[in-house]
Write a structure and sequence with these properties.
The complex is a heterodimer of chains A (121) and B (108).
Chain A (H helix, E strand, L loop, with lengths): L2 E5 L2 E3 L5 E8 L8 E6 L5 E7 L6 E3 L7 E6 L4 E6 L8 E8 L8 E4 L3 E5 L2
Parallel strand pairs in A: 2-11
Antiparallel strand pairs in A: 1-3, 3-8, 4-5, 4-9, 5-6, 7-8, 9-10, 9-11
Chain B lengths: L3 E4 L2 E4 L5 E7 L8 E6 L6 E5 L3 E2 L7 E6 L2 E6 L9 E6 L11 E5 L1
Parallel strand pairs in B: 2-10
Antiparallel strand pairs in B: 1-3, 3-8, 4-5, 4-9, 5-6, 7-8, 9-10
The chains are: A mainly beta (121), B mainly beta (108).
Chain lengths: 121, 108
């Protein structure tokens, strides 16, 4: 069935790096724009980044711009989020989500189960 | 950045009652690029409504969305036990794709 599975979360010290992966199955990743969304413990949803279906366009939330990089490998049906210079305020569950089509301006119709990132010394 | 403000913060209702959730945008949301999501504890969000009023696949017709411009509403006509959850609105017309802070629908 159509599914997204995140991995790569864990506990990391402030200032260090972490790379998240999101494996897609049941559909062809290259046909969809993809997003990362995060949720701090007990808080609401915060959009993080988006990448177009072919990887040519990326956009970021101001809170992560210059520190995080979204990328994709359509041949591997996998989405990535490289997170550098991590801060305590980056602690959250990170979800990957599929846009409802190729366009960036689409609702998020499929979500992964999330992977927890904890930034702490 | 478009700021979305949801009200009320918490809605206390009984099963069978009607729920009306509001989402107000700080600027007009282009082409009604407004979505609603439901989230239950420990679960990922689920898309309910897109384009302000179109139900996503498999969503029961007791869920309906309306509105345009800066004012949007999610209505649950008759609450079922599984509808008690947190609901988020989101604009996806342009980056950053902002979410509202959420409305919790709890059992009275």
């Amino acid at each position: 069935q159509v599914q997204l599975v995140e991995s790569g979360g864990g506990v990391v010290q402030p200032g260090r790096s972490l790379r998240l992966s999101c494996a897609a199955s049941g559909f062809t990743l290259s046909s969809y724009a993809m997003h990362w969304v995060r949720q701090a413990p007990g808080k609401g949803l915060e959009w993080v980044a988006v990448i177009s279906s072919d990887g040519s366009k990326t956009y970021y939330a101001d809170s992560v711009k210059g520190r995080f990089t979204i990328s994709r490998d359509n041949s591997k049906n996998t989405l990535y989020l490289q997170m550098n210079s991590l801060r305590a305020e980056d602690t959250a569950v990170y979800y990957c989500a599929r846009a409802f089509g190729q366009l960036l301006s689409n609702a998020f119709d499929i979500w992964g189960q999330g992977t927890m990132v904890t930034v702490s010394s | 950045e478009i700021v979305l403000t949801q009200s009320p913060g918490t809605l206390s209702l009984s099963p069978g009652e009607r729920a009306t959730l509001s989402c107000r945008a700080s600027q007009s949301v282009s082409s009604s690029y407004l979505a609603w999501y439901q989230q239950k504890p420990g679960q990922a969000p689920r898309l309910l409504i897109y384009g302000a009023s179109s139900r996503a696949t498999g969503i029961p017709d007791r869920f309906s969305g309306s509105g345009s411009g800066t004012d949007f509403t999610l209505t649950i006509s008759r609450l079922e036990p599984e509808d008690f959850a947190v609901y988020f609105c989101q604009q996806y017309g342009r980056s950053p794709y902002t979410f509202g802070q959420g409305t919790k629908v709890e059992i009275k």
